[in-house]
Amino acid sequence: MREQDRDRDGEGRARSGRPRDGLGRPLPYGAEGVPRQPEGVVRTPAETVAQAQGLLDAGMPFHAHEVFEDAWKSGSAQDADLWRGLAQLAVGLTHAARGNAVGGARLLRRGADALAGRADAYGMDLAALTAWARGLARRVEAGEPVDAAAEAPRLSGPPEPV
Predict the structure, then answer these.
(1) How far apart are CA 126 and CA 109, in angstroms?
(2) pLDDT higher than threshold 60 for residue 162
(3) Residue-wise pLDDT tens digits, 91-110
(4) What is the Cα–Cα distance from 89 to 148, expressed in whole angstroms?
(5) Is 94 helix (H, G, I), strand (E, B) or coil?
(6) 8 Å CB contact between 59 and 96
(7) 3-state secondary structure labels for all residues of the chain
(8) Cα gap 84→62, rounded to integer Å
């Protein structure tokens, strides 16, 4: 592929214009994909948690990871490790749901390590999220299939009624 044929964003950076599925996998050009998360959106911590939870519940952890990444890059320096750890949990769930047991377990543990020992923040029970991630990592390594929506963690508050 020639350089001028590559997909570019408005600032000339290489960006794939291919549609993506709910787990962020590229689909063929012209296929129906799910809307992408806009990049660089500044949200309050509460908005970040709420939007990420909605995406996790919908089985779209790749998209939730992008919401956490925005918070990590635009938020305060003191919260950067929190948002990065949550992004790692979301992308770990993404890889696990895609069938990548090694990458999924590795990222789930990396995110859990980033959150371990931190005080709860923005209504999130970080000890519970850490335990969820470590438990899912063990199950993924044991070969259990993962459904991203069914495995979505609760970031805060009581679980939604079923």
Answers:
(1) 13
(2) no
(3) 999 999 999 999 999 999 99
(4) 12
(5) helix
(6) no
(7) CCHHHCCECCCCCECCCCCECCCCCECCCCCCCECCCCCCCCCCHHHHHHHHHHHHHCCCHHHHHHHHHHHHHHCCHHHHHHHHHHHHHHHHHHHHHHCCHHHHHHHHHHHHHHHCCCCCECCECHHHHHHHHHHHHHHHHCCCCCCHHHHCCCCECCCCCC
(8) 13
Distances (CA, A) of 109 to 127, 130, 162: 13, 8, 29
pLDDT given for residue 38 in this prediction: 85
Report which of residues 159 and 92 the model is more confident about.
Answer: 92
* Cα 42 to Cα 4: distance, rounded to the nearest angstrom: 31
Largest Cα separation within the chain, whole Å, is 52
Kindly state the average pLDDT of the residues 72-81.
94
